[in-house]
Amino acid sequence: MSTKETLSFQTETKRLLDLMIHSIYTHKEIFLRELISNASDAIDKLKFKSLTETDLIPSDYKFKIEIIPNKENNTITIKDSGIGMTRDEVINNIGTIAKSGSKAFVEELNKATETNDIDIIGQFGVGFYSAFMVADKVTLITKSPYSDIAIKWESTGDGSFTLEEVEKDSIGTEIILHLRTDNEEKEEKYSIYLEEWKIKELVKKYSDYVRYPIQMDVTKEVPKKDAEGNPIENEYEKITETETLNSMLPLWRKNKTDIKEEEYNEFYKNNFHDWSDPLATIHYKVEGNIEYTALIYIPSKAPLDFYSKEYEKGLKLYTKNVFIMEKCKELVPDHFRFLKGLIDSSDFSLNISREILQQNRQLNVIAKNIEKKVVAELKKLLKNNKDKYIEFFKEFGRDIKFGIYNSFGANKDTLKDLLIFESSNSDKPTTLKEYVERMKEEQKHIYFVSGESRSQLEKLPQMEAIKDKGYEVLFFTDKIDEFAIQMLMEYEGKSFKSINQGDLELDENNDDKKLLEEKEKENKELLEKIQKELEGKVSKVKLTNRLKSSPVCLVSGEGVSFEMEKVMNEMPNANPMGDVKAERILEINPNHELFVALDKLYKSNNEEIKDIAYLLYSQALLIEGFKLDDPVEFSNKMANLIIKTSGLLN
Asked: Where does the record place it (predicted)?
């Protein structure tokens, strides 16, 4: 045996443990659910590996989970006959937190520390650490079938843990929780988790559908019997026998009408490592050429690693109630990669491989059917409970939009009615269908504007003419919005039109158009002068009816928009030939006093027009959310102009 070795926790792991130890979280009892769930996962992995590695375990090997309360030692042990861990796996899985280096984890851990909110545990799938809510020391003894030695891990959650090699007769893992002492002042009763009735209650509540027997030795009083085997009146004796605490009947095998919503929710939280109830549950059975049962969940919250490279999509795969794959990604399209759940089909082989799955026609049929069911469920939610749908879209709407843009728009017709956007017409997001139904009779386009926030976009000068016509504008505040809409192209025959790109086609009357053309001719030299001063910055300077009270705005030509320019230039190594550049057109309001002043300056050959042209362009850039090339130059020119116009200098 090796000597005991002391190692330090990763920084984020220590902070998480501190949060556990000092948590005021009221549902401390879920520690048992989390540890049973981990035990079940470990057995799943061993069972799956044994399908192909036939010499890994004996043919009569017993898969089970044991709970062992010990009042004398104030401990509760959760023991499984699963895959176990090697020394390196213990360090990687327990000494550190998977994915903890991600920005999302660090940010959420900071929030959790401030608010004492430990939902982060369920979101990151590190439920083992919930043991420290009820234990002041945790001992883990584990043996892997791939190692000749067993490993003992132990920690009091003080920032370090010990490792040593020990003897263990069988493979699997046992976790010994040394329970905290009861605290009467805080009314915290940890010893209650040693009571048989409480353990039974928790297993029934949280883990009844775990596929493996959860067993515990229980004490029972039975009548004493005489020598002939007859019960002796009023005399009893205590006996101990092993009792299976869970039904093990898979939830998905039961009739839908016999399942309560609470049962669906607990099954979801227990099996998919989430602390929140799901948004919706889809449970159905298909019979015919392909027979299968599906239990699909739409989560209410995105896991914290959802937008990281570590996140893996997929549904669990079973055949005849036997687990064969953890995450079958072929069952879930990328735009619904947030789905959790399982498929149980007797048509699949026990030794099915990923290569076979990729070619499996039955799998493709099931995947298409799942997609249809999810789309129908989301449309129903959007129709019947829009507020709830809005919360869903905040979490997963980006994936819906990506689904429209992805694969050259192959899924756009499937997904387009699931889109919602902020709108100038309402405080609540609107669907495209609702927008079209509200369109004015003469309106040709679905108008939109892209930017960082609704509050910023509402103040854009380009909004003025649209508001004047009474037209509704969609606010695109997500970077992928415009890309998705370009792929969609149109909705119910109505094309999409950016209010800061090209001609708005607002159907001005002929008199307005004629008057604008005349002003353009009258001020041709002035506009050319401004354009010359802005050479290399704008492609054109023109007068516009787009503005009402604002003096100037910047619009892009057809093709790449300003928002697309920003997004594409933010992508690392996306443009080896140089930055993407949208065409810039400076539009001036001919009815604004500033234009009258410009005209006077030009006619008097005043050189200040050069600086004013630069300031107008810079002003338009700032309004569009662009950075100035030279903020110091802008500041100096602005200061000089203020001084001159104030009459402080001759």
From this structure: Cytoplasm
Instruction: Copy the structure tokens of residue 330.
Output: 């072929």
pLDDT of residue 169: 92
Q: Is 407 annotated as a binding residue?
A: no
pTM of the model: 0.71
DSSP for 268-307, please give it.
HHHHHT-SS--SEEEEEEE-SSS-EEEEEEE-SS--TTTT
Give the pLDDT confidence score for residue 204 in this predicted structure.
Answer: 87
> Would you kindly state where each structural domain of the chain is located, as residue ranges?
5-244, 271-386, 419-506, 510-645
- Asked if 546 contacts 502 with a C-beta cutoff of 8 angstroms, the reply is no
The neighbour count for residue 12, using CB atoms within 10 Å, is 18
DSSP assignment string, 201-216: HHHHHH-TT-SS-EEE
Q: How many CB atoms lie within 10 A of CB 528?
A: 11
Query: Is domain 510-645 annotated with CATH 1.20.120.790?
Result: yes
549 appears as a binding residue in the annotation? no
CA distance 465 to 480: 26
Instruction: Note the CATH number of domain 5-244.
Output: 3.30.565.10
Is 124 labeled as ligand-binding? yes
The CATH architecture of the domain made up of 419-506 is: 3-Layer(aba) Sandwich (3.40)
Place of tokens 């619009």: 555
Q: Is 101 annotated as a binding residue?
A: yes
> SS3 for 338?
coil
Start-to-end Cα distance in the chain: 94
On whether 38 is known to bind a ligand per the annotation, the reply is yes
Please answer whether residues 396 and 381 qualify as being in contact, where contact means their C-beta atoms are separated by less than 8 angstroms: no
Residue 128 annotated in ligand binding: yes
Using alpha carbons, select from 431, 420, 429, 414 the residue that is nearest to residue 397. Answer: 420
Where the chain has pLDDT below 50, the residues are: 1, 24, 98-103, 118-125, 648-650
Q: Is 18 annotated as a binding residue?
A: no
Topology of the domain covering 271-386: Ribosomal Protein S5; domain 2 (3.30.230)
Q: Note the pLDDT of residue 208.
A: 86
Confirm or deny that 127 is annotated as ligand binding: yes
Token pair belonging to 116: 């004492």
80 is in an annotated binding site: yes
**Residue reference for tokens 């854009």:** 460
Residue labelled with tokens 């004047």: 468
Provide the residue type at 495 as one letter: S
Residue 346 is assigned to a ligand binding site: no
Tell me: is residue 258 an annotated ligand-binding position.
no
